[in-house]
Design brief:
Two copies of one chain form a homodimer. Chain A has a single domain, classed as TIM Barrel. Helix content of chain A is about 45%, strand content about 20%. Chain A has helices at about 15-25, 35-45, 45-50, 65-80, 95-100, 120, 125-135, 150-160, 175-180, 190-195, 200-215, and strands spanning about 5-10, 30-35, 55-65, 85-90, 105-110, 140, 160-170, 185-190. Chain A has an eight-stranded parallel beta barrel, surrounded by seven helices. In chain A, strand 6 (about 140), helix 8 (about 150-160) and strand 7 form a beta-alpha-beta unit. Chains A and B meet through helix 2, strand 3, helix 4, helix 5 and helix 6 of A and helix 2, strand 3, helix 4, helix 5 and helix 6 of B.
């Protein structure tokens, strides 16, 4: 990824035309487009190829299967010119390693999710998953923008690996907080795709990111 | 599902023609076809509609996202006439409940996986995940055919919920052991789709299942 604006827009829509328009509208202000499973099930992987012509695409597929199946999923994703894929860490080292080995781009491991249900089994092992991500050579991790203290703690674990933080906007996180806490990118969905002017909203968020990033804070 | 042969064949191939031929060849001996993510990424969800005309389809998508995304995935799966979907439990109650609420068919929750990496974080919480599956009203759980003792232990937890057991054949499990231990269905992939005569192999396995099921053992 270019790491210019530090903003990733989540194309959490299910219409192809809407996804493509959103990508075209916001491309000047985002470093990557994040695509989830519902959109791909509805529109097929051909949409990834189309989006990849507009900008960098990260497939947020939360890959969580046995090593061989993970490998096949990752193969397919990069065959369609994605630049990155998001995979789960809790399935264990062999499954994550299979993704990293198969990837022709960045693998991001979900360290910690932000919904209430994640408190029970995911949150207690988030630090260990982050260590696993480092150990297997992943490009980075996913950590919740809604919990800047956790972003900070995970930054201390992953060193110079990338941290991508979803949950900004509709889920309650601010653009500034995760950046100040050490995130490399924030992921914004609804606040952009539901905005009357997605391009203007994306621009506004990049300004907030830039301000937060300019604030000198020890990492 | 019809619960006739208690055999589910995993269509773990990536060619549409091969998947359809395998389904047609084996349909008289299987209760359902299991489809995984690589096949759907390669061929699209239209293949699910085609397979659904041959027999019951279970989408093994290992769904593991936040509740709203899970709901959208489940919606899409049943829109294409699948009869069941396999989801992860570790993401927590809200995520699993979102699947059950959205499903127009059976939701199976992965209680325990069989690859080595699952020993670390999945195996220790398998019993709790099984209890969660019961609590949210899932149709059943996934438990490894390679570990009949675990199938037996999970049976004691889930009562009359269904247990589907993958790992028979190439991964080392026998058809008889998980059935004797209390599984309702066994899932067989490679041993059938790599067989010279998949139909004959499926028939052979159903005979082994029937023999094991006829052996009276206390549950």
């Amino acid at each position: 990824m270019r790491r210019k604006t530090r903003l990733i827009v989540a194309l959490d829509v299910t219409e192809e035309s809407k996804a493509l328009r959103l990508a075209a509208d916001t491309k000047d202000y985002v470093d990557a487009f994040k695509v989830n499973v519902p959109l791909v099930l509805a529109r097929g992987m051909g949409l990834i190829d189309k989006l990849a012509k507009i900008g960098d695409v990260i497939c947020d597929f939360k890959v969580a299967d046995i090593p061989n199946t993970n490998r096949l999923i990752v193969d397919e994703v990069f065959r369609h010119h994605a630049k990155g894929i998001i995979v789960h860490g809790f399935v264990g080292e062999d499954s994550v390693r299979a993704c990293v080995d198969a990837a022709r781009g960045d693998v991001f491991v979900v360290a910690e999710m932000s919904h209430p249900g994640a408190e029970r089994w995911n949150a207690p092992i988030a630090d260990e998953i982050a260590r696993l991500a480092v150990a297997v050579g992943a490009a980075g991790i996913i950590a919740p923008a809604t919990r800047p203290d956790r972003v900070k703690a995970l930054r201390a674990i992953v060193g110079d690996k990338l941290i991508l933080s979803p949950g900004v906007g509709a889920q309650g996180g601010t653009p500034a907080d995760p950046i100040t806490a050490g995130a490399d990118y924030i992921i914004v969905g609804r606040a952009i795709y539901d905005a009357e002017n997605p391009r203007a909203e994306a621009e506004k968020i990049t300004r907030e990111i830039a301000r937060a990033a300019a604030t000198p804070l020890p990492r």
